[in-house]
Amino acid sequence: MRTSIPSPDPSWASWSIGPLTVHAYALCLLAGIVAAVWLTSRRLTARGGHEGAVVDIAMWAVPLGIVGARVYHVLTHWGDYVGPGHDLVHVLYVWEGGIAVFGSLLGGAVGAWIGCRRAGIRLWSFADALAPAMLLAQAIGRLGNWFNHELFGRATTLPWGLEIPSSNPAFPADLPDGTLFHPLFLYEALWNLVGIAVILRLEKRFGLRWGRAFGLYLVWYGTARVWLEALRIDPTSVTPLGLPANVWGALAAVALGVGIVVVQGRRHPEPEPSVYVPGREPVATDLPA
């Protein structure tokens, strides 16, 4: 008897509540963002940050992260939005899927830099607190790909193969109906959950601060994306050496992560004194008698 992972009914992807249309993909993204803010806040507060600091930073990082994620996706899938038969307005339809983590890192980094400057928090301190929370957000957000019937890989006969209807635009024309595919969204989600445990363990053992925990996150996530991208079959933009743009992005993330761990480890062998920028520490007020 063949086992497999079923895809949800297409009606689950969105539903109407009065005049509003609710998209499962968007709900997964929002749930991931909320979980990341919660975990990052707990971690930064435990290190001396003030209550509400992460929310203040997130007000800048989240919107710019979403914009960066969408821009990166559109630029690397330009043919899906521009040209005959395409309506450019679909560039704005984020709920239909199509955001790139590497773009969110770039846009989110700009937003985090702005937010940290306003809150008086060291950017590296915030990044370290964020590192495992990013993996948690990405693991939750990947469920949205399941609802949208996307992010699946090559055909497989493994018992956890994903069912994809042959009506899916990305279904290979040369494969028969009923073919199962690698559930790449699930592979990434599980990899991210394991990564949370790895970062927390190594952080406790080696005291990863000054950005080194975030560097480890980049290495962990980028490594997974290199081999996951090799399993993808949906069209992606091809760049020099015949590699998809996302593979280059993943390799860049790994290289940057290694650089952060090595350079920051040499520059700051001492423990992190405070999560605050010098001179921006909050001043304790006298409590009423």
From TrEMBL:
Transmembrane intervals: 20-41, 53-72, 92-116, 123-141, 184-202, 214-233, 245-263
GO cellular component, one term: plasma membrane
The keyword Transmembrane helix appears for this protein: yes
Positions contributing to a 1,2-diacyl-sn-glycero-3-phospho-(1'-sn-glycerol) binding: 142
GO molecular-function term, one example from the UniProt record: phosphatidylglycerol-prolipoprotein diacylglyceryl transferase activity
GO biological process entries: lipoprotein biosynthetic process
Subcellular localization(s) per the UniProt record: Cell membrane
EC number: 2.5.1.145
A Pfam family of this chain: LGT
Membrane topology of the entry: Multi-pass membrane protein
InterPro entries: Lgt (IPR001640)
The organism's place on the tree of life at top rank: Bacteria
Primary localization class, coarse: membrane
Keywords: Cell membrane, Lipoprotein, Membrane, Transferase, Transmembrane, Transmembrane helix
Pathway named in the protein's UniProt entry: Protein modification; lipoprotein biosynthesis (diacylglyceryl transfer)
PANTHER family referenced in this protein's UniProt entry, alphabetically: PHOSPHATIDYLGLYCEROL--PROLIPOPROTEIN DIACYLGLYCERYL TRANSFERASE, PROLIPOPROTEIN DIACYLGLYCERYL TRANSFERASE
Protein purpose: Catalyzes the transfer of the diacylglyceryl group from phosphatidylglycerol to the sulfhydryl group of the N-terminal cysteine of a prolipoprotein, the first step in the formation of mature lipoproteins.
Record-linked HAMAP family: Lgt
Family: Belongs to the Lgt family.
Name recorded for this polypeptide: Phosphatidylglycerol--prolipoprotein diacylglyceryl transferase
Organism, as annotated: Cellulomonas biazotea
